[in-house]
Amino acid sequence: MKLYELSLSEALEKMAAGELTSVELTRSYLDRIEAIDQNVSAFITVDREGALGQAEQADKNRKQGKVGELCGIPVSLKDLLCAKNLKMTCGSRMLENFIPPYDATVVRKIKEAGGVILGKVTMDEFAMGSTSETCCFGVPQNPYKKGYVAGGSSGGSAASVASFECVASLGSDTGGSIRQPASLCGVVGMKPTYGRVSRFGLTAFASSLDQIGPLSRTVEDCARVMKVIAGHDFMDSTSVKREVPDYTASLTAGLEGMKLGVPKEYFTEGLDSEVEAVINNAIGVLKEKGAEIVEISLPHTEYCVAVYYLIASSEASSNLARYDGALYGYRKENTQSLLEMYKETRSLGFGEEVKRRILIGTYALSSGYYDAYYKKASQVRTLILNDFKKAFESCDALISPVTPMAAWKMGENTDDPLAVYMSDILTISANLAGIPGMSIPGGFTQAGLPVGVQLQGAHFTEDKLFKIGFNLEQALQLQPRKLDI
Ligand code: GLN
Fold first, then answer.
1. What whole-number percentage of the chain has pLDDT above 90?
2. How far separated are the first and last CA of the chain, in Å rounded?
């Protein structure tokens, strides 16, 4: 077994036993990145020197008995999280040369726990997209099939974990951007409850929907990282003061007495039959493990895509107003006036998809249209939340597909934004309702593409999702497959 194939828990054990140092582990990942990343295109920035320095420090700390929960563990960061003195592009020309002077709270927590930051990974520009193809600095490949998308917007996070270029990664999820690429790349991804993880230092896309969360190769690894990043932060007023449970504590408990709901609206036309088969198999497996399966209804599911794209775009149009070329990032030079500088900078600096969202959002918020679009969408959002509240009165968690289909070919659908928006239908409602959602590898299609199983739970029930996910993972025992990189 290669060092980079170790799980987080295995690596910690070996380091604790004195059989492995963080420097050795970090080197094995850096060498792996150097050897294969030209095929995967997961990394925008690799911080070799910084990572080795942090690894040396972690080894020193361990010797002195200062052993954090991630002591010596190499991770990657989606390139919209601020890490001090490390370039942060958000996948956009607009921030091509931006170097943040501070750490995001999650980055600080990872560092304080002894984690090693390997670098920053590719993503859709400003996290808008479902394939990472709008990234200006490389488009990640699906590690299981050349020429297929890794998903998005945290495509680099998922691809870097799946291709063993890091132990775990942090991504962000506004409408599915952790769970969808996790599903498409065959890794575990958790989108926590809104307010569970601080967003200080996360580049805002849609502030009422954005959450940061971990991606990893096993459920236990995901729970370990989640434990480190969760919790209240006085720098983020939307983070919630609530105790953080030990997410690893209840993993091995059985599922007796648990009720899992199957939302019938998620199993309609457009759902690929191979995806459906993987989910049905997972449902069968969990039933055998003692869970009771009940059908439930989320009647407002059909409105989710419209509501999400109005709300997310409206918030994006406001959040992205700050990129004007005046203080940092890209600026069009040699313009005649301040207004022209703003206009040219924004026209040239942003890509097509981002500009489309800014236009949709500006329209939806403008006077005369606000009531019909933004306000109406906000009202329907409450109905969607109520659907979930009702569902969780009769079950502990929901099980469903993450996406209606497995990964598709790169370049497909790039001229049809609506088709891509529609593929988000099964993930965006969790963001609208603020509830946690998770993707766990469930199987593969005939073509060898991974398919994830989605679990969604009531607010702050991440521990339940980890427990169900762990049971599923253990029961399925998916065998490692050869990567196509
Ligand atoms: N695919 C969705 C979008 O394009 C979700 C993105 C995300 O979660 N960041 O908006």
1. 95
2. 18
